[in-house]
Amino acid sequence: MDFVAGCIGGAAGVLVGHPFDTVKVRLQVQSIDKPLYRGTFHCFQSIIRQESVFGLYKGIGSPMMGLTFINAIVFGVQGNTMRLLAHDTPMNQFLAGAAAGAIQCVICCPMELAKTRMQMQGTGEKKSSRKLYKNSLDCLARIYNREGVRGVNRGMVTTLIRETPGFGVYFLAYDVLTRSLGCEPDDRYMIPKLLFAGGMAGIASWLSTYPVDVIKSRLQADGVGGVNQYSSIADCVRQSVHREGYMVFTRGLTSTLLRAFPVNAATFATVTLVLMYARGTEVGPQDCEPAQPSHHAQIQQQAQPSSL
C-alpha cells in the first residue's frame, strides 16, 4: 500500500509544483554573460509572456511518469525499511529516508535529465521553430543513441549526493514535526498539520542539498547547444564559482522554496491520508511498529504520534 499511496502523492505533487521547477532550472542554467531573467518573478512573467502558460509545464511528461514511480519507490522503501528497523525513532527515519533516496536515483537521474533538456528547449520562444526533442521519451532515446547508457545517466553522482542525505532530512523533519504537532487521526486539525509538516519537511530537505542541485542541473543541461562546457563535477564547481562567485549556489532558490512547500505538503498529506484510510485510521500512527491485528486497540493506546 506504501507504493500505491506514493504514486497518488507523487502525481499530486507534480501538478502543483512543475511551474516552479521550470523557473528553478531556467535560473540555474542561464548564462551570466547574457542573462534572460532578473529573478524568480521576472522569469515567471517572461515565460508566460513569451511562451504562454504552457511554457511553465514544459517537460512535465517526464516527472509525471517518473515521479509516480519514484514516490512509489521512496515511500515503499522507506516504509519497509522502517519495519525492518522495527523502532520508530528520528534516527531510523533518517536512515530509512536516506536508503529510499539512494535507491530511487536509478529512475530519478534519467527522468531529471529529460525534464531539464525539455525545460530548456525553446527558451524565449512562444512557438519553437525547431524542436530537438518531441517529448521526454524521445529526448532520452536521442541521448542514448548519441552517448549510450553513460549519457542517459549524466549527473548520476550529483543526484546520488543530493538525494541520499536529502531524503534522510526529508523524513526526519516530517517525523519530528508530526510528533511535535501531535498529528492524531481524531484531531480535527490533522490535515492542516500534515500539510504544514510536509511543506516544512520539503523546505528543510532542499536547503540541506541545494548547492548540489545547482551543479546537477548545470551538468545535465551541459551540451544542449552541442558543446560541452564542463569536463567533470569538480570542473563545473570551479568554473561556476570563478565566473559567478559562491552566490551561484543560490540560483533559483526562491522558486525552489516556493515550490517545495505546496508540493511536499500535497505529497505527504496525500500519502498519509491514503495510508490511513486504506489501513484503517486506528492503525495509521503505528505504521512503523510491528502490527498485531488482534491488539489494535492496545497498540493505539500505547503508540506515540509518528510520521506514519
Automatic annotation (TrEMBL):
Catalytic activity: L-homoarginine(in) + L-arginine(out) = L-homoarginine(out) + L-arginine(in); L-lysine(out) + L-arginine(in) = L-lysine(in) + L-arginine(out); L-arginine(in) = L-arginine(out); L-ornithine(in) + L-arginine(out) = L-ornithine(out) + L-arginine(in)
Predominant localisation class: mitochondrion
Biased composition (Polar residues): 295-308
Cellular-component GO terms for this entry: mitochondrial inner membrane
Disordered: annotated segments: 286-308
Membrane association type: Multi-pass membrane protein
Cell compartments where the protein resides: Mitochondrion inner membrane
Keywords: Amino-acid transport, Membrane, Mitochondrion, Mitochondrion inner membrane, Repeat, Transmembrane, Transmembrane helix, Transport
UniProt GO molecular function: high-affinity L-arginine transmembrane transporter activity
Pfam families reported for this sequence: Mito_carr
GO biological process, one term: mitochondrial L-ornithine transmembrane transport
Solcar repeat ranges per the UniProt record: 1-84, 88-180, 192-277
Protein family membership: Belongs to the mitochondrial carrier (TC 2.A.29) family.
Protein name as catalogued: Mitochondrial basic amino acids transporter
Protein species of origin: Seriola lalandi dorsalis
